[in-house]
Amino acid sequence: MTQAGTAPTVAELLLGATDRLRVSGSESARLDAELLLAHALGVERTTVLAHPEARPGSGQAQSFAAAVERRAAGEPVAYIRGFKEFYGLAFSIDSRALIPRPETERLVELAEARVRTVLTGSPRPEDAPPYRVWDVGTGSGAICVALAVVLRRHGYGDAVELFASDRSERVLGLAVENAVGHGVADRLTFAAGDMFDVSGAPSTVDLVVSNPPYVPSDAIPGLPIAASFEPRDALDGGPDGLDVVRRLLAGVPEVLGPEGAALIEIGADQADAVLDLAAGALAGWTARIHEDLAGRPRVLEVDRGDEGPLS
Ligand code: GLN
């Protein structure tokens, strides 16, 4: 039994863990320690920061110590806590899926803008079919679920139908969990399949969104150790990183309707290469690059129409 008076305080636990994590190579050791302690205590990080003098019970201190050891071995904080914030929403996450990255929020923003522009731009007849979106390689479902949530919030919920697919049957369980957890399972259909070869998929859609693997194979070993806990096929895009982007561009003419567009996440150094690919694969289409919040190229937009509504 630990004597209440001698148990370490929150401040002491954080100091010890920060040192441990710094030595093990974490670049965000203090933040990691705060998040993991909050998780072990079942409180918000702000509560931890507000009570440095508190003395957690020995069970909580032990689960914190175990979490710190996992992090010290390189496991990402998101997998240890079991969730990750994305687009202001908490997503369940585990090693079946890539951890949603902040830069991917740009893709959701662009998709949202596109859908809202199309749905408000021209009057739609009462019996118009729903606007259809397909998230290819959905993983945890972060992109399509965030999009469904934000569209519903702005009153477009009923006008939009989302379809999401992934090659991995296993990861779809996680995506469904996230759709249910955020109350959008009624607008979203999930199915397993490779690229556009998915049974039950709509014959055409208005918008394709995708965060494909795009890291060149030989750059994978150089990624931070946390990435080694993520599914390799969510990261590895083949020799030049663009194998899956190529397949997406080859497939979109079949699947996109007359005003359709695709938004595809890319690596910050791939803008010129993907514009070349798009010019080769999609003659007569418009292609452009959108930057992320850090000002780096991040999303390729290809548009069948000639005056894509995005700016
Ligand atoms: N942005 C991710 C990384 O660099 C890559 C994600 C992806 O390949 N889709 O770790």
What does this structure look like?
This protein has 311 residues and is α/β, with parallel strands linked by helices. The chain folds into 2 domains: 10-73, Orthogonal Bundle (Helicase, Ruva Protein, domain 3), CATH 1.10.8; 95-303, 3-Layer(aba) Sandwich (Rossmann fold), CATH 3.40.50.150. It has helices at 10-23, 29-41, 45-50, 58-72, 77-81, 105-121, 142-153, 169-181, 243-255, 271-281, and strands at 83-86, 89-92, 131-136, 160-166, 188-192, 205-210, 256-265, 286-291, 297-303. The strands form 2 sheets. It has a 7-stranded mixed sheet, sandwiched between helices. It has a two-stranded antiparallel sheet with strand order 1-2. The model has no long low-confidence stretch (mean pLDDT 94). Bound molecules: glutamine (GLN). The site of glutamine has 9 residues, from loops.
Within the largest sheet, what's the order of strands?
A: 5-4-3-6-7-9-8
What is the helical fraction, as a range of percent? 25-40%
The total count of helices amounts to 10
Q: What is the CATH T-level topology of the largest domain?
A: Rossmann fold
Report how far apart the termini are: 63 Å
Biggest sheet record: 7 strands, mixed
CATH class of the largest domain: Alpha Beta
- Radius of gyration over C-alpha positions, nearest whole angstrom: 22 Å
How many separate domains? 2
In sequence order, what are the helices and strands, one letter per element?
HHHHHEEHEHEHEEHEHEE
Low-confidence stretches: none
CATH superfamily of the largest domain: Vaccinia Virus protein VP39
Net shape: globular
Quickly give the structural class.
alpha/beta
